[in-house]
Amino acid sequence: MKSSDLVLITGASRGIGAETARALVADHGTQVLLVSRNGELLADVASSCSDPTKVEILALDLASADAVPRVDERVGQRRLRAIINNAGLFRTRNLGQWTLADLEELFRINAHVPFLLAQALADRLEGEPQGHVVNIGSMGGVQGSVKFPGLLGYSASKAALAGYTECLAEELRKRGIACNC
């Protein structure tokens, strides 16, 4: 990756998102834009990177109605090398306890927002080197939920993310953008 490349990472305040940010900065000198609800944790991640000047943070709840436009505005016209859709919501319920609100929230964060971000930012992913959309999925989304009782909504939302990813890969291929889950 070129040091001038910008990589957007959602769900970057801990876990996979935070470690990905640290690795991209340390190993590739990549400029990263980190998004998460928790601004304090994002600041901690930024300060723990080998070069904090390569890190921008955006404290934002991706469930909010204005989340995608706010990310779009923050990226501006800069070239994106990748979007790493890592933000996710995990919720368990016994059968009979799921509500429409539960499912809408899971699908919004785990499937719809990653698609909407890729759609909004696709023009910034075009060019050389090839841009990428990386959606962080779950085995629950591809192997069914037999091994995961109580995760019907989560597993279904991650299955939707896998479906979105396959369709996006086809839609974005002609624009020279790769998409994987």
Taking the sheet with the most strands, its summary is:
6 strands, parallel
Number of strands: 6
Compute the gyration radius: what is it? 16 Å
N to C succession of SSEs: EHEHEHEHEHE
**Mean pLDDT value:** 93
Fraction of residues in helices? 40-55%
Euclidean distance between termini CA atoms: 20 Å
User: Proportion of β residues?
Assistant: 15-25%
| Low-confidence regions | none
Backbone shape: globular
Output the structural class: alpha/beta
Spatial order of the strands forming the largest sheet? 3-2-1-4-5-6
Helices, by number, come to 5
Question: What is the topology?
Answer:
Layout: E1 6-10, H1 15-28, E2 31-36, H2 39-48, E3 55-59, H3 67-75, E4 80-85, H4 100-125, E5 131-135, H5 152-173, E6 177-180
Parallel strand pairs: 1-2, 1-4, 2-3, 4-5, 5-6
Helix pairs in contact: 3-4, 4-5
Architecture overview:
The protein is an alpha/beta fold and 181 residues long. 45% of the residues lie in helices and 17% in strands. Strands 3-2-1-4-5-6 form a six-stranded parallel sheet, with helices on both faces. Helix 5 links the parallel strand 5 and strand 6. Helix 3 packs parallel to helix 4 and helix 4 runs parallel beside helix 5. The mean pLDDT is 93.
Could you give a quick summary of the protein structure above?
This protein is of the alpha/beta class and 181 residues long. The chain has helices spanning 15-28, 39-48, 67-75, 100-125, 152-173, and strands at residues 6-10, 31-36, 55-59, 80-85, 131-135, 177-180.
